[in-house]
Amino acid sequence: MRIGPVRRFTRNLLCPIDILGHRLLLKYTRDPAEARKEIRGHACLAQHYRVPALRGHLRVPGGHLLAYERLPGGKDQGLLLDLLNTDEPTSELHAYMHQLTTAYHDVILATARLTDPAHVVRKLYWDRAVAGGRLDAYYGGADFPVADGLIDTPVSHLDTYTLLVNGQRLHLHWAATLRWLRTHFGTTEPVWAALTQGDPTDVNLAHPLAWLDYDTAGTNSIPGEFANFLWYTSALGGWLVPRYNPAAFTDHPATFARTPANTPLIRRAEPNHTTRTIHIDYTPRLSAPRRAAVAAYWHQLVQPVAERLWPGHDLAKLFRPYVAMRILGVYNLADLNPEDRLVLLARLAETMSPGFHPATFFSPLESPCPAL
Is this prediction's pTM over 0.90? Predict the structure, then answer.
């Protein structure tokens, strides 16, 4: 028997193990309910997507142990992340994105249904908006500066200012935005949902293509699925997660060399209390491989699905609540450094603007990847 190093991912522990000729990945989770969701999610996903086999699961003291088939991998190998950690988009990345979007396109359209929100996976959106959820835990009764040392105006006072973000006049009412999110995810209006993994990040997608991590797998909101991949690929995966959760990339250190190419650059942060304006100029930066992945996902998946499910519909209205929740509900903005918080507040203001459109927000500026 050979046991590899233990890695921590959020609240879970992962450990590779070779035993009796089997290459396994052991996952330990302390939450029995989460383990049950993962087992159900894996079974659900396995009907439509390639997933490593679940060889067994066992209740152990303090939690639950799951044993998965271990897919090939190694240092800077085995994940979509590794195809993004390059200087330029490769033919391998283009082929991967074509395969990924084709698989999603087919399964989403085959399983899409208007669904009561009570019957969708609620962890990443609905549960964070309910009383006592993450929005309350992060922001309930809290106030903090827009950016300590740069713009010391409290976020609760932002509605009394005009924001000039990269020359665009915007407004952001902090308390009203939180109320709107709680209200939106508190309605019973049906949503278009389909069978997906739910949290399609560059560390949850293996290369060669397979889906990992299943506690959010099942019937997921389609706009939520799309917003999750696009926001993670364009902001979280290359910038914020490496900065605030570096342990997740121990086996993929090339991520850190690419972080500067994905970190926005603040060029101006200047309040004028006399005119009640705040000037924020920043340059969004995204590496060429990440930009290519976002473009392929938008052109090859989002647009074709939208044309089928929401012909003529305003995609901004569909995407806005999910993007806003991704911005506010992953990290507590008050815990971030002032520069990161400032950019995220600017991006939130852009999301809430009447001029918001996801096609430009996520910067899919390149032409679609060539068909294979």
Answer: yes
